[in-house]
Write a structure and sequence with these properties.
Blueprint (H helix, E strand, L loop, with lengths): L3 E9 L3 E6 L2 E6 L2 H6 L5 E10 L4 E6 L2 H11 L6 H10 L2 H9 L3 H5 L6 H18 L4 H5 L3 H12 L4 H14 L5 H11 L1
Antiparallel strand pairs: 1-2, 1-4, 2-3, 4-5
Helix pairs in contact: 2-3, 2-4, 4-6, 8-9, 8-10, 9-10
Length: 193
């Protein structure tokens, strides 16, 4: 129905944003990740999902298409509603959610407020194949769900490299040396980027 809204950001807070589009203000529920990526009162483009229930029509806004796709996958699981999906995307990035599902990290998914053990397992069972197929996660990234990789990626991003390229290079390095330290990952990645 409404797939995106472009307009002037009128108001933002950690749970919602209001975008003025040709004189009409759209209130969108957002995650903390979207909140942190929004500028102050500039023109913005938010990808949206309209949730229609008997008692409410609720608009959800996302800074990236990837975040919206993960949100839609999450709400397709029985027992996971829009508010739990939004909470999950507030406590983890969309990439972290994908990694948690792909690596069957029940504890990480269960750490989200509102998700119990059964729901966490259902999320993994229902979405693992879809996540692996849709987002083309390699087996290495599934196995190597470690903090060294994330720290190295963050450092490379700060140095100005594109995350997607850096992720691919670090993935190749981890295939050769799975136990590489953060420093080693960064040094080898700098040679290949």
């Amino acid at each position: 129905m409404i797939t995106q809204i472009r307009g002037k950001l009128v108001e933002k807070n950690p749970t919602y944003a209001v975008v003025d589009c040709n004189g009409v203000g759209y209130l969108m529920n957002i995650s903390l990740n979207t909140f942190s990526s929004l500028p102050n009162d500039e023109n913005v483009l938010l990808y949206t999902h309209l949730s229609i229930r008997e008692d409410a029509h609720t608009l959800y806004g996302f800074s990236t298409k990837m975040e919206r796709e993960v949100f839609l996958l999450l709400i397709s699981v029985s027992g996971v509603g829009p508010s739990i999906a939004r909470t999950m995307l507030s406590s983890m990035t969309s990439e972290e959610v994908q990694q948690a599902i792909a690596s069957e990290n029940v504890k990480l998914i269960q750490s989200v407020k509102g998700i119990g053990a059964k729901t966490a397992q259902r999320v993994i069972v229902d979405l693992k194949d879809k996540v692996l197929k849709t987002f083309e996660l390699g087996e290495v990234s599934v196995i190597q769900n470690n903090t060294n990789k994330e720290e190295a990626l963050s450092a490379l991003e700060v140095l100005g490299f594109v995350r997607k390229q850096a992720d691919k290079v670090i993935g190749e390095i981890l295939k050769e040396t799975p136990e590489a330290s953060v420093e080693k990952l960064i040094k080898q990645a700098l040679k290949k980027l």
